[in-house]
Specification:
Layout: E1 2-5, E2 8-11, H1 26-58, E3 108-114, H2 116-133, E4 138-144, H3 146-159, E5 164-170, H4 171-178, H5 197-200, E6 207-211, H6 222-225, E7 237-241, E8 265-273, H7 274-279, H8 282-297, H9 312-315, H10 322-333, H11 353-363, H12 372-377, E9 384-385, E10 402-409, H13 415-422, E11 427-433, H14 435-446, H15 449-452, E12 457-463, H16 471-480, E13 486-489, E14 494-496, H17 500-510, E15 518-522, E16 524-526, H18 538-547, E17 551-552, H19 567-572, E18 577-579, E19 588-592, H20 608-618, E20 622-625, E21 631-633, H21 640-647, H22 649-670, H23 675-683
Parallel strand pairs: 3-4, 3-6, 4-5, 10-11, 10-13, 11-12, 15-20, 16-21
Antiparallel strand pairs: 1-2, 6-8, 7-8, 9-12, 13-19, 14-21, 15-19, 16-17, 18-20
Helix pairs in contact: 2-3
Protein name: LARGE xylosyl- and glucuronyltransferase 1
Biased composition (Basic and acidic residues): 29-48
Biased composition (Polar residues): 14-28
């Protein structure tokens, strides 16, 4: 079996060149010496190649080496041909011009092992860099655990990139294949799963590029795919040598990181000829070799170690090209993924039913309608990344657990720490951010002791697209991804009273929420003071109301929104009491997780909660006010959407039109009982 080091074939049979094999006799010493000579030759070749690359780099990153004389713009899909991997150039770039071209519409197959929350986040940057440069259809084969599959399946489904196919393979089912190998590497068992790809991937798949999640491409992946044309005879693997001196084991006394000659091979980028590997009985070959080596090595200390660009320390690595690599990585980290939804001209795409349905819905809209943009937003598919940060929570076993649900944009990040201090239970948040803002949020969260100490907060990124804030879509995303039987539908500007989480769990039992259709109302108040001594009891809150430090929520601008809560009765109430729905009622409620979603037609400011409460009433939910619960709205600058509502007449006209259409839909859906909503609206 032959391997490739920097594009040069090297004979290295795993069954014959193992120093610790029982068949390792005196004659093997000569083989070892011969191999050492060959390794030194390879070192010389590598030094010469690095010198050549250094000269090319000094002429500027926009020039291709070898026979490429044309410089491509970013719009044409090609950039510098350096591969961002600790200075590693995959294949032999100096010979790229001699490689046979990849067929225009040939599908390129890529396999990636991805497990957990962090790897699911890292792989997005890799995919962006591949999509940016690619000119061919892509088929990603993702060996993923349950967490990564949930995250990435949603991401790709909502990304809707043409000519990209995704298949998942259950990493948990593969654990038994490699779990018998003792392993000290930080990547754990998942770092070894590349060994079983011949068995895992479809039997009719002939070749595949295998990538680590922390790769960033600086050129079209087709250049790497074309290297398969250089394989000859029994050559079945494409690898490059590790470039870091760390692997030589001479950085300090007794430094022995690598049980091999020289730097060893880097498995961050692998080319696999699967059909030939299967014929060579790769499965038995690697197992036999591993068993034999473990007799003396006891465990594997490394798996797929390379530069990891998501580590601050690795971003400061000593490498003369580090600024180029670092800037390229950071560029794709914050690059707008929506711009990668471009068609491949001349290549037929597989029919995608979601895309076809979307186009059909949009085609039925009248573009001359003055409210077209409002109507269009209802059908916009926003790219969504669930569980952007680590999440770990098991709901309470007594079936009383409640998740706080809210949505926010970048200008409300400062509320997160305060909410976490007031609410110790699980939280589900949908954040409306751009790609660059998502990275800012990541840095903010990782720098916060309060947020990092909480593993029961689910952060779901909904990426920006369009001109409106899709408030109800965000609420639906946050609602959909809770693991508790109940949810508290709040807003990010509110701080719940201390102890509300436990109080709500007791109320759920007391009011038999499991078997009745109830919406438990948490009375809402507000302060106009940015610094507030938060009331620690109902008595303290009532005192602050009397002093004018607190007010009932929106009493001075939108009394109807919360008037039905009956604050006068609440002041003296000691037991829960029922209230009736009234026009424009929009309380904050605790409901079962199976309650209806919010209506997506309402975006930005206006009627987004009112419509939801109306639907709860139509479905015969009973509204019950909790006597010892409260929440307080904290002051903030007006949102962009409320400013548009106040200043733009057409905005207000369209909102009124959408309200009327919603009420008509309610009448069609709920019949005679829904007529009261039309009557109430006319009387208000």
């Amino acid at each position: 079996m032959d391997n490739w080091i920097d594009g040069k074939p090297v004979s290295l049979s795993p069954l014959e060149s193992q120093p610790h094999s029982p068949r390792y006799t005196a004659s093997s010493q000569r083989d070892r010496e011969s191999l050492e000579v060959r390794m030194r030759e390879v070192e010389e070749e590598n030094r010469a190649l690095r010198k050549q690359l250094s000269l090319a780099q000094s002429r500027g990153p926009s020039h291709h080496r070898g026979n490429h004389s044309k410089t491509y713009s970013m719009e044409e899909g090609t950039g510098d041909s350096e591969s961002l991997r600790a200075g590693i150039v995959a294949g032999n770039s100096s010979e790229c011009g001699q490689q046979p071209a990849v067929e225009k519409c040939e599908t390129i197959h890529v396999a990636i092992v991805c497990a957990g929350y962090n790897a699911s986040r890292d792989v997005v940057t890799l995919v962006k860099s591949v999509l940016f440069h690619r000119r061919n259809p892509l088929h990603f084969h993702l060996i993923a655990d349950a967490i990564a599959k949930q995250i990435l399946a949603t991401l790709f489904q909502t990304w809707m990139v043409p000519a990209v196919r995704i298949d998942f393979y259950d990493a948990d089912e593969l654990k038994s294949e490699v779990s018998w190998i003792p392993n000290k590497h930080y990547s754990g068992i998942y770092g070894l799963m590349k060994l079983v790809l011949t068995k895992t991937l479809p039997s009719n798949l002939e070749r595949v590029i295998v990538l680590d999640t922390d790769i960033t491409f600086a050129t079209d992946i087709a250049e790497l795919w074309a290297v398969f044309h250089k394989f000859k005879g029994q050559q079945v693997l494409g690898l490059v040598e590790n470039q870091s001196d760390w692997y030589l084991g001479n950085l300090w006394k007794n430094h022995r990181p690598w049980p091999a000659l020289g730097r060893g091979y880097n498995t961050g980028v692998i080319l696999l000829l699967l059909d030939k590997l299967r014929k060579m009985k790769w499965e038995q070959m690697w197992r036999l070799t591993a068993e034999r080596e473990l007799m003396s090595m006891l465990s594997t200390s490394l798996a797929d170690q390379v530069i990891h660009w998501n580590s601050p320390k690795k971003l400061r690595v000593k490498n003369k090209h580090v600024e180029f690599f670092r800037n390229l990585y950071l560029t794709f980290l914050e690059y707008d993924g929506n711009l990668l939804r471009r068609e491949l001209f001349g290549c037929p795409s597989e029919a995608d039913i979601n895309s076809e349905n979307l186009q059909k819905q949009l085609s039925e809209l009248d573009e001359d309608d003055l409210c077209y943009e409002f109507r269009r937003e209802r059908f916009t598919v926003h790219r969504t990344h669930l569980y952007f940060l680590h999440y770990e929570y098991e709901p309470a076993s007594d079936n009383t657990d409640v998740t706080l649900v809210a949505q926010l944009s970048m200008d409300r990040l400062q509320m997160l720490e305060a909410i976490c201090k007031h609410w110790e239970g699980p939280i589900s948040l949908a954040l409306y951010l751009s790609d660059a803002e998502a990275q800012q949020f990541l840095r903010y969260a990782q720098g916060s002791e309060v947020l990092m100490s909480r593993h029961n907060v689910g952060y779901h990124i909904v990426y920006k697209e369009g001109q409106f804030y899709p408030v109800n879509l965000l609420r639906n995303v946050a609602m959909k991804h809770i693991s508790t039987p109940y949810m508290f539908l709040s807003d990010i500007d509110f701080l719940p009273m201390y102890g509300l989480y436990e109080y709500l769990r007791k109320s759920v039992i007391q009011l038999d929420l499991a078997n009745t259709k109830k919406a438990l109302i948490v009375p809402a108040f507000e302060t106009l003071r940015y610094r507030l001594s938060f009331p620690k009891s109902k008595a303290e809150l009532l005192s602050m109301l009397d002093m004018g430090t607190l007010f009932t929520f929106r009493y001075h601008v939108w009394t109807k929104g919360h008037a039905p809560t009956n604050f006068a009765k609440w002041r003296t109430a000691t037991t829960p009491y029922r209230v009736e729905w009234e026009a424009d009622f929009e309380p904050y409620v605790v409901v079962r997780k199976d309650c209806p979603e919010y209506d997506r037609r309402f975006v930005g400011f206006g009627w987004n909660k009112v419509a939801h409460i109306m639907e709860l009433d139509a479905q015969e939910y009973e509204f019950t006010v909790l006597p010892n619960a409260y929440m307080i709205h904290m002051p903030h600058a007006p949102s962009f959407d409320i400013t548009k509502f106040r200043s733009n007449k057409q905005y207000r006209i369209c909102l009124k039109t959408l309200k009327e259409e919603f009420q008509q839909d309610m009448s069609r859906h709920y019949g005679f009982a829904a007529l009261k909503y039309l009557t109430a609206e006319n009387n208000s």
